[in-house]
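TODO from last week: model Glycine reductase.
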Amino acid sequence: MEADAPIRYIDRTRDYYAALGYPAPYRWAEHAAVPFQPLARPLGACRIALITTAALKRPGQGNQEPGAPYNGAAKFLEVYSAPLAEEPALGINHVAIDFKHTMAADQGSFFPRAALRRTTRIGSVAPRFHGVPTHRSQRVTRDEYAPEVLARCREDSADAAVLVPNCPVCHQSLTLVARHLEANGLPTVIMGAAKDIVELAGAPRFLFSDFPLGNAAGRPNDPASQDLTLGLAFDLLEQATAPRTVLQSPLRWTGDSGWKRDYGNVDGLSADEIAGLRADFEAQKAAGKSIQASSGG
């Protein structure tokens, strides 16, 4: 793989699950037509909503601390809202981030609350942020989660929304939400790292950061990069004139250069190692089904 070529997550995840013994590929959302809503007022007068796929850390839901492994028990199944007055405790290890190269120790790298509070380019930040479950069912995301997010953004009198996904399916989920918001008059911009998934699903505006999954809001422990990333997202909100507008951040990842090679790559693994990955996947899947059953879903 060329160092400057984005990871093709659709191909990478297909090959990964096929190697684990799941040959039927997932069918990703694909749209030709894309809704688009220009800003109705200057950005400096806008109230901005923040939408995430991060999970609130709750007791009894397993390890969600920085550097923790994948934890299906921390998944959530309903849209939630929480106040932005104080920094929330969020985790992203309930989804398939880049666990080898992402510690998630700095929330600013996946949840741009601090950057939103530092910026002087907007009128205000909505009082709440909204969490969207990562669900492989496109119908559930489209028909249940997206309308709920729209209703909550309207309750908060938001003029536009910034959406920050984490894993491959998160990028699909928030693209579907963004499409619904735009179709109903609310401009959006997605800050993400899985370019192929967002472009296939048809995002109105997309800021692409070529970073490991879990760092779509900027490099960890680097407020300047986080401010620049959010600023580029605001540029898109202001300047885009048509749907499918994509802007790539000029920032480069400063960590291990092998991250593009490593994510979801089973090349070189032994049969026993692959069997272990499958067993872990089945265990996490069972944990997710247990959560769904206990919630009545």
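Done. Residues 30-250+258-263 form one domain.
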